[in-house]
Design a protein that fits this description.
The protein is an alpha+beta fold and 289 residues long. It contains 7 helices and 15 strands. The strands form 2 sheets. Strands 7, 8, 9, 10, 11, 12, 13, 14 and 15 form a 9-stranded mixed β-sheet that branches. Helix 2 packs across helix 3.
């Protein structure tokens, strides 16, 4: 087991400057801790370069706007800060976490317009998100929780509060010996895993849920482009639960997950087939170009 995330060597960029890792703290009455007024990005650096870095920084600003606050640093300043963090910590292959939140201030109720918005960026070494699943395929549970309607949440923001049911789903999955859980949406369609988008293969064509009530991940978008470049037909559509039985291959995509084949979802089994392997290998090559 690695060191706890609050007790490590290194530095974290926080509110405009690098500080010792262990000093990167906030007050107990920070608004985000009580009311989930926080947005974040998960990014990976390969050979010293963060894959799609600027798109992540732009999405961080978009997510903040969806939660009705403005980050007091420009995209260019965030880009520079991320590189500063990698350099200061001597990292070339790393996971990068940028997080913006409403801090402690004059407000301590639901409203928080008077409170300052803060920003921090940390980076650390992080291996395969699903362990050895890239070789044999991850095992997924089926969550009892559903992705909510976009009428109830800002579903296209990468906001901390949207992950509460993901945590519950993943804990339940791990208790069953699974790596993760697949979630349906509020209408009963197949949606995503707890922190990754999902793809299926049937008869040489790819099917992936339409991201109309959950995050259209940057890795998802990258993989859709890779498939189209390879002249593989992609169907972005609503997928019914009963269709799972007819799919032959499956994989997950996400910055942390990268491209991870799936071997089982509940009672449904999938092969780690040629298309899944080709896309996983192609993605590994692409991010290091």
């Amino acid at each position: 087991m690695g060191a706890a995330y609050d007790d490590r060597d290194g530095t974290i960029w926080m509110d405009g400057k690098l500080i010792p890792w262990r000093d990167a703290n906030v007050h107990i009455l920070t608004h985000a801790m009580h009311y989930a007024s926080s947005v974040f990005e998960g990014e990976r650096a390969y050979n010293g370069k963060i894959f799609k870095s600027r798109l992540h920084s732009e999405r961080l600003h978009f997510s903040a706007g969806q939660l009705d606050f403005q980050i007091p640093y420009t995209v260019d300043e965030i880009e520079a800060a991320k590189q500063e963090v990698l350099t200061a910590n001597g990292l070339t292959d790393a996971y990068v976490r940028a997080v913006a939140w409403r801090g402690a201030g004059e407000d301590m109720g639901v409203a928080s317009a008077k409170n300052p918005v803060r920003l921090a960026i940390a980076a650390w070494e992080w291996g395969a998100y699903y362990g050895d699943a890239k070789m044999k395929g991850a095992k997924l549970d089926i969550s009892k929780w559903k992705r909510p309607s976009p009428e109830t949440i800002p579903s296209h923001a990468k906001a901390a509060g949207l992950y509460m049911i993901c945590t519950l789903s993943k804990h339940a999955a791990e208790a069953k010996g699974c790596s993760d859980a697949m979630m349906f949406d509020y209408r009963g369609y197949v949606a995503e895993a707890t922190g990754a988008n999902i793809f299926f293969v049937k008869d040489g064509e790819v099917h992936t849920p339409l991201p109309d009530c959950f995050l259209n991940g940057l890795t998802r978008q990258t993989v859709v482009g890779m498939l189209k470049d390879r002249q593989i037909k992609v169907h972005e559509r609503h997928i019914m639960p009963e269709e799972l039985e007819g799919f032959q291959q499956c994989w997950l995509t996400g910055t942390a997950a990268e491209v991870t084949p799936v071997g089982q979802i509940g009672d449904y089994n999938f092969e780690v087939g040629a298309i899944a392997r080709e896309i996983a290998e192609g993605y590994e090559k692409l991010v290091r170009e």
